[in-house]
């Protein structure tokens, strides 16, 4: 039975847990036997997965991670092992009797069981994880999943407070990635008028800007860095964005400094009360979760997933404590993961009803560090020290005189045997004192990160090109140019 989002948002914690436990049993008894990777993993470890009955029992299962999915030279087809692969015999064996009876009843009513199963299990759509091209993993959606993408898009819009009369502009880059498609389904599925612009690379920033003004868009959906670029140019051209009510930020972390800069720009565009709401997405979870208020957490969908936080040793932390996000699918088909370590560190999960919207669904704390980024890239050995490059976003965005910036990690004199060095490329706001910025930013970065970067100044349009804001799918905000 399908339960509505409104009902789920009002269910007491115990009922939500009971619903999740029921889904864990279906996952273990019916879905795992169809899942090549987990069935094999549990059998090899001698785990009787049919006895896993609750979300607490999940702790008896081993973790998995993207390193289990990434194709290797020996096993290029590993991502396929994460797709549910039922067959008739298996269905008869593992499907609960009640479900089979339901299907038979439908058959009597003229529906074809085979078609029903195809709807649920046959993949029809693909997203890739973002990240470096060698590390991209395909995640496949069935038609059942695409309906859920639409459903969760609708939930996301309800959480951010969208209504049917809204007019939405999707500025995510057009690509086989979750961000663009979730926004597409959120807009169309909610019955909201929208423009799927494809971002700066497809429609172009000029036309997107014109569309926001002419359509009187009330919702703008964008990667925060691109949104900033768009608003900054619009402000320079004295555009009227006064209809904008909600800026939905996704695809990257939204730092408090950037949020403040976005607010300032919005105000200068006549949008004084625009709420800037962030989302947190996982390609492997096939959807995203949103804030209902600038200070709230990300509202989860407890009927579709179970999320726990674990400490360094892999032990589940207590409610409200910090830990790594571990995701278990409860509702999706196609490609799916169980007890999946994301590498993202969250400040805690809140279970009490939301103080802003009253929904009872758990929320992930707003503060999430994308460790998946910094394992490969953001946390880098510089002179033997580990530096969290995420900090650049927060420190540099504190400077209102800085219009755009880029961080480049290279070698001194471009000599591969030399020490690493950090170069910061800056475009300052017109009329600001470059020497003052150089001095203050240098000091601030040294005290915050213990690094003394080389700061260089560029013209704004030059740096915009270097960042690829109008030409790339992903902005080149931080570049690691060291030889591998
Ligand atoms: Zn809320």
What would the keywords be for this entry?
35% helix, GMP Synthetase, Chain A, domain 3, six-stranded mixed beta sheet, binds zinc ion, four-stranded antiparallel beta sheet, 21 strands, 16 helices, alpha/beta, 484 residues
In short:
This protein has 484 residues and is of the alpha/beta class.
Report on this structure.
It is a single chain. It is built from 16 helices and 21 strands. The protein is of the alpha/beta class and 484 residues long. The chain has a domain at 375-480: GMP Synthetase, Chain A, domain 3 (2-Layer Sandwich), CATH 3.30.300. Strands 4-3-5-6-7-8 form a six-stranded mixed sheet, with helices on both faces. Strands 10-11-12-15 form a four-stranded antiparallel sheet. Helix 11 runs parallel beside helix 12 (256-268). It starts with a helix and ends with a strand. The model is unreliable at 374-380 (pLDDT under 50). Zinc ion binds next to loops.
CATH superfamily of the domain at 375-480: ANL, C-terminal domain
What fraction of the residues are assigned to beta strands by DSSP? Answer: 15-25%
> Which stretches are poorly predicted, pLDDT < 50 over at least 5 residues?
374-380
| Bound molecule types | zinc ion
Name the overall outline. Answer: globular
- Give the overall pLDDT as a whole number: 91
CATH architecture of the domain at 375-480: 2-Layer Sandwich
What structural class do the secondary elements suggest?
A: alpha/beta
CATH class of the domain at 375-480 equals Alpha Beta
The CA-CA distance between the termini, in Å, is 53 Å
Q: What is the helix tally?
A: 16
User: Might you state the CATH topology name of the domain at 375-480?
Assistant: GMP Synthetase, Chain A, domain 3
């Amino acid at each position: 039975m399908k339960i509505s989002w409104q009902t789920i948002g009002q269910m007491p914690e115990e009922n939500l847990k009971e619903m999740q436990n029921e889904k864990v049993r279906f996952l273990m008894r019916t879905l795992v036997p169809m899942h090549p990777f987990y069935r094999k993993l549990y059998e090899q470890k001698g785990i009787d997965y049919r006895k896993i009955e609750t979300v607490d029992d999940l702790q008896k299962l081993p973790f998995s991670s993207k390193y289990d999915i990434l194709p290797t030279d020996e096993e290029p087809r590993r991502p396929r092992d994460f797709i549910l692969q039922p067959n008739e015999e298996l269905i008869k064996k593992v499907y609960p009797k009640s479900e089979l009876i339901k299907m038979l009843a439908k058959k009597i009513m003229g529906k074809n069981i085979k078609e029903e199963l195809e709807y649920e299990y046959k993949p029809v759509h693909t997203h890739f994880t973002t990240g470096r091209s060698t590390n991209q993993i395909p995640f496949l959606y069935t038609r059942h999943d695409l309906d859920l993408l639409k459903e969760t898009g609708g939930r996301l819009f309800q959480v951010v407070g969208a209504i049917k009369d809204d007019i939405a502009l999707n500025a995510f880059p057009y690509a086989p990635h979750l961000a663009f498609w979730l926004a597409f389904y959120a807009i169309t599925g909610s019955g909201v008028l929208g423009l799927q612009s494809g971002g700066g690379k497809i429609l172009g920033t000029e036309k997107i800007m014109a569309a926001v003004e002419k359509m009187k868009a009330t919702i703008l959906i964008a990667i925060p860095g691109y949104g900033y670029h768009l608003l900054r140019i619009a402000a320079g051209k004295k555009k009227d964005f006064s209809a904008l009510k909600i800026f939905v930020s996704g695809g990257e972390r939204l730092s408090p400094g950037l949020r403040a800069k976005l607010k300032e720009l919005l105000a200068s565009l006549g949008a004084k009360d625009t709420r800037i709401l962030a989302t947190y997405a996982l390609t492997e979870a096939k959807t995203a979760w949103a804030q209902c208020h600038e200070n709230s957490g990300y509202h989860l969908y407890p009927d579709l997933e179970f999320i726990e936080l674990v400490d360094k040793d892999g032990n589940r932390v207590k409610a409200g404590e910090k830990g790594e996000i571990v995701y278990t699918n409860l509702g999706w088909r196609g490609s799916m993961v169980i007890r999946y370590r994301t590498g993202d560190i969250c400040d805690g999960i809140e279970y009490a009803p939301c103080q802003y919207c009253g929904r009872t669904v758990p929320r992930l704390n707003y503060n999430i560090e994308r460790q998946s980024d910094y394992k490969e890239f953001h946390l880098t050995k510089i002179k033997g020290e580990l530096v969290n490059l995420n900090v650049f976003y927060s420190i540099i965005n504190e400077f209102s005189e800085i219009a755009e910036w880029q961080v480049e990690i290279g070698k001194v004199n471009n000599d591969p045997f030399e020490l690493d060095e950090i170069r910061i490329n800056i475009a300052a706001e017109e009329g600001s004192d470059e020497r003052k910025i150089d001095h203050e930013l240098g000091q601030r970065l040294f005290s915050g990160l213990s690094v003394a970067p080389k700061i260089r100044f560029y013209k704004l349009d030059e740096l915009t090109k270097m960042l690829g804001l109008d030409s790339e799918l992903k902005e080149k905000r931080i570049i690691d140019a060291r030889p591998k």
